[in-house]
Amino acid sequence: MAIRQGLLALLSQGPRYGYQLRAEFEASTGATWPLNIGQVYTTLSRMERDGLVTPGEQDDQGRVVYTITEAGRTEMERWFSTPVAQADRPRDELVIKLAMAVTAAADVRPVIQAQRGATMRTLQELTRAKRASAEGAAQRLVLDSMIFQAEAEQRWLDHCEAVLTASPQTQEKQR
Question: What is the 3-state secondary structure (H, E, C) of 64-75?
Fold first, then answer.
């Protein structure tokens, strides 16, 4: 995930210190990607090294406030204007698991049923979180995305089950 660019987007709204960035990042994403404060400060150090942010003076509570630089704004705008390619996303472990189960001639139905149950529970939790959400549009969009992904996974699992049921290999096993 592009934490670096996400922090730049928050800093484009004005100077902020690390804990503030962490809280705003989690609020914007509906806390679906919790950030470790150490990760925030490590990322800020790297962005400072790369000229994307500049640290300011410490405030009266000893917090260093960071400001986005022009290079940081350029990086953020480049990120916003560049589509995310499928190849940039991590591998889907579920797809690999089902492919390997089929390849190993294992009974895939229990794998699909276990995943279907887990995905349904996730979908219910996300729907409850969406109903309870009083946050802004950013959090709602994140929850909507996760709900759509869970619904797509359910449809894909239905498809897998149908394909495997119609497969000559499966029909041969059932005889």
Answer: EEEEECHHHHHH
Cα–Cα distance, 29 to 139 (Å, whole number): 5
Specify whether the CB–CB gap between 79 and 5 falls below 8 A. yes
7-44: pLDDT as tens digits: 999 999 999 999 999 999 888 877 777 889 999 999 99
Cα separation, 19 vs 52, whole angstroms: 19
Cα-Cα-Cα-Cα dihedral sign, residues 111, 130, 155, 85? negative
pLDDT band at 173 (very low <50, low <70, confident <90, very high): low
- Please, is 44 exposed, middle or buried when counting C-beta atoms within 10 Å of its C-beta (0-12, 13-18, 19+)? buried
The whole-model pTM stands at 0.71
